[in-house]
Amino acid sequence: MKKDLRFYPSRQPPSSLTQETLKFVPTQARGLWVRNDYKFVPSVFGILDRLSTTERRERREYSLDWWTDTALYYYDSLLVSAYYGMEKWDFREFYKIPRKNFLFVSDSGGWQVVTQSVKIEPIDLLKWMEHNADFGLTLDVPPVDPISKKTYLDDQFEGFKKTAELSRRNYEIMHRHWKENDFQLLKVIHGVGPRQLDYWYRQVEDLEFSGLAFSPHPPSEQNIAILLAYGRDKGAKKVHIFTGTGIETTPIVIYGRKYFDQLTYDSSAFSTQGAALRAYFVPYDLGQKILFGKSYNSTLKQLPCNCPVCQLATVDDLNSPGSVPGGLIALHNLWVYLMYCVFLDSITESKDIFIEYLRRNNLTETIKAVRFLDLSEEVGFYDAYNRIYKAGGQDVSNLFP
Ligand SMILES: [Zn+2]
After folding, report:
1. Whole-number Å distance between alpha carbons of 115 and 149
2. Residue 62 pLDDT
3. Among 91, 123, 125, 124, which Cα is nearest to 108's?
4. Could you give the domains of the chain?
5. 280 CA to middle of ligand 1, Å?
């Protein structure tokens, strides 16, 4: 597919967000990241409502909702946890989420069931997903210790087994009521390392769904690579994975897209860090953040970025009170992250440039993960795991020619 490249105008004179005369023509980013085989899906969780309502109250010219046609810029996908979404039956219409040429994903809400002690019925969830989303995830009981609220480690196997068995019950109910031809439902598999992964996988192996979904605990280079190789080993064609927006982990996901017909990955870091902490991603170095609001400690004269948000907003805008600044920072963060994805999208096609980039940035764990993926293609998932990641695995960071 030919990319729909657009050039953005150079920086406009600083303009305050409170200046009512300002008119902004939305930047259409549609097409810039449209590929058939993989897609980053920004996750909004609880701030969706806040973004929308503040926009309506304080700012009419353009919207902070990147899926609407009055947005500061347009991006064509969104993930919401069903726990938040199910409050509104016509969620998609209510928030004006497009039906066409758009990817709306529903997370299961399993995480909120465990951490916030709420209850979700598998049938209600499935009906809501089918009504609203383009695809959804099965209702898992995440492997979390109910007392410490921490994920079970590899050696905490008894607690882990119980959550896999409880999840099976939910998956069975959803499988029975699922209209397979109309709606994609991906089967959530949990686990760190082959022993846990295999146990969970076998618990639900007979229940066939559209593909697999994974949630690495935590989303490290190693854990993400293990899950991608595992999905490939099990022959999954469609995979969804929670990844975060790490500069170290995103290269693995984009490199691993070649294994699947459809790979989607989500993160809410851009919005939670942006909206809650006013942490502004530094362009060209996502690891660095500039804090605005109360924690602002700088004498910046202009924003160090030329994205559609920063062309309009000023340093003062991002430091002003209220919730709009947080929303603007979240949108800036999303843009900066998407640009990183565009960069990786290109360089992962060229192994030499890709590895050189990782090396120069000292991303040694990322290089190891890439080597693990390559090795798993040659010798299979289990052998590659034993050689590289099992305790005492070899140092492979210098194995690339
Ligand atoms: Zn920006």
Report:
1. 7
2. 64
3. 125
4. 28-388 (3.20.20.105)
5. 8
CA distances from 129 to 91, 108, 124, 126 (A): 10, 9, 9, 5
Q: Using a CB cutoff of 8 Å and minimum separation of 24, what contacts does 26-30 make?
A: 26/62, 26/69, 26/70, 26/71, 26/72, 26/73, 26/74, 27/72, 27/73, 27/74, 27/308, 28/73, 28/74, 29/73, 29/74, 29/75, 29/338, 30/4, 30/74, 30/75, 30/76, 30/101
Spatial contact of 26 and 69, defined as CB atoms under 8 Å apart: yes
Residue type, 400: F
Cα 26 to ligand 1 centre (Å): 15
Residue type, 14: P
| DSSP H or E stretch at residue 337 | helix 324-347
Report pLDDT for 15: 37
Q: How far apart are CA 247 and CA 267, in angstroms?
A: 13
Q: Coil, strand, or helix at residue 41?
A: strand
Report the alpha-carbon distance of residue 236 to residue 186 in Å, rounded.
10
Ligand 1 mean position, distance from CA 332 (Å):
4
Q: Does the predicted model carry a pTM greater than 0.70? A: yes
Residue 20 has a pLDDT of 36
CA distance 272 to 232: 31
d(CA 296, CA 375): 46
Q: Which of 243, 245, 322 is nearest to 278 (CA)?
A: 322
Compute how many other C-beta atoms are within 10 angstroms of the C-beta atom of residue 208.
9
Backbone angles phi, psi at 372, to 5 degrees: -65, -45
Q: Are 97 and 63 in contact (CB under 8 A)?
A: no
- State CA 290 to chain mean position distance: 22
CA of 333 to the centre of ligand 1 (A): 7
Q: Looking at beta carbons, which pairs linking 114-118 to residues 24 or more positions away fall under 8 Å?
A: 114/141, 114/142, 114/144, 114/146, 114/149, 115/144, 115/149, 116/83, 118/83
- State residue 76's pLDDT score: 84
Q: Which of 340, 308, 373 is nearest to 40 (CA)?
A: 340
The secondary structure of residue 274, as a DSSP letter, is I
More confident position, 219 or 33: 219
Cβ atoms of 106 and 97 closer than 8 Å: no
Q: What is the pLDDT of residue 235?
A: 97
Give ion ligand 1 contacts, CB < 5 A. 305, 307, 309-310, 332
